[in-house]
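User: Is it possible to get a 3D structure for a protein together with its bound compound? The compound here is adenosine-5'-triphosphate. I've pasted both below.
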Amino acid sequence: MSIYRPEDEPEQQEVGQQQQQQTVTTTEDTPLVFPPLTHQRLENCAFSSWYPTFRSISIKSKIIPLPEDFVSYLNADGVFIPGQSGLTLALSDSEDEGDDEDISDADRFKALQEATFRQRAEGEQDDSSDDEDESDQGEAPLPYFPGLEQEIEQTITEFGGEVFPKLNWSSPRDASWIAATNTLKCQNVSDIFLLLKSSDFIAHDLAHAYEDCSDAAAEGAEGVKERPDTVDLVLRKWFDLAPSMEFRCFVRDNKLVAISQRDMTYYDFLKGIQDELEDKIVDFFEDRINGHFPDSDYTFDVYITRNKDRIYLIDFNPFAQKTDSLLFDWKELLQLDLEDKEQLDHLPAMRLLESEAAGSHMQQPFAFNRYPADVTDLSNGQTVAEFAEAFYKKVQAASTTD
Ligand SMILES: Nc1ncnc2c1ncn2[C@@H]1O[C@H](COP(=O)(O)OP(=O)(O)OP(=O)(O)O)[C@@H](O)[C@H]1O
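Assistant: Yes, that's possible. Here is the predicted structure of the complex:
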């Protein structure tokens, strides 16, 4: 689920009554009336709600309910990786350059990152425990989740060695910069934990997912839920998806009204196959989605394989402002007159980027969540290993002058 908060769009107004339609005031003061975002609607888009019904048309996935102590670990400050992360320990224990010969650049980079964050976390701990017995400082045990780690490892093996992680709604897309591969491709437990711990999108799932809900959590309850009852780790078999073939589809009142290219890059070849793609998506919606999802208003994401012979369902999102409307404006989608037969005959509208220039004008996803400024300053023109070294030294210097 996107955490899309356009700077220039007005804030959502408080809705007083349960089930009342959600109103957003536009800059021109024309109210936008969204279908109410209820707890139920949001939960319908949680992975564990929809996956059992749509398993056969989606990517092979495993849902692992997370133990509460792991949820607390995710919520805790600092990015330290649990005890089985041998690389973390190997790096911090080893001063001997010769020991590093067998470690690849990517492993070394990751180990440096982990050591850096571990050091930061220990620094924070030291700062906040000035009054404590000195012998206790820096000796807090690293978190250790043997049962969970084993289940994750088994799943990675079952899925061919590479998985894509997410929680109930969101993936840690904003944290891909921290991974040695710059993607969400995970090959071991520490890849997954590092991404989850570094992502604001994951933090949002854990503590703010229900924030925009318009109804009370349950009868007699006063406000919205604070967090999902069960936090799930979803591991999906890794797929080398071509971003050009990903599309977001908008459904209003059980009608597929719009389809947008998902990746905000211009792809010259798409124009020539647009009609074919649209037909495939319409058929997929009619045959496999419509009537099987419990809501009448929602969005869903699809991937069409390069040879165009298969469509995969990737995800569902609520028909709500918090979902990125990509090449459409929520306003135009909400103002469509679904009673107008003539208008309906021309739907769905499918939009692709029309030129490279148009692509460069589109807001890049989570541009503000990517590399911290000091990371980009340091990275200029360096190899991964050089950059990691420089980054590590910079953090070390900063922590000794603090
Ligand atoms: N199994 C997979 N293997 C490789 N890449 C994947 C896989 N699943 C999803 N992706 C990639 O990750 C992107 C985000 O996936 P997904 O929609 O599940 O995450 P999300 O955080 O819910 O995103 P959004 O908020 O935009 O809905 C997809 O657009 C796709 O490019």
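Residues 178 and 195 are 7 Å apart (CA to CA). The radius of gyration is 23 Å.
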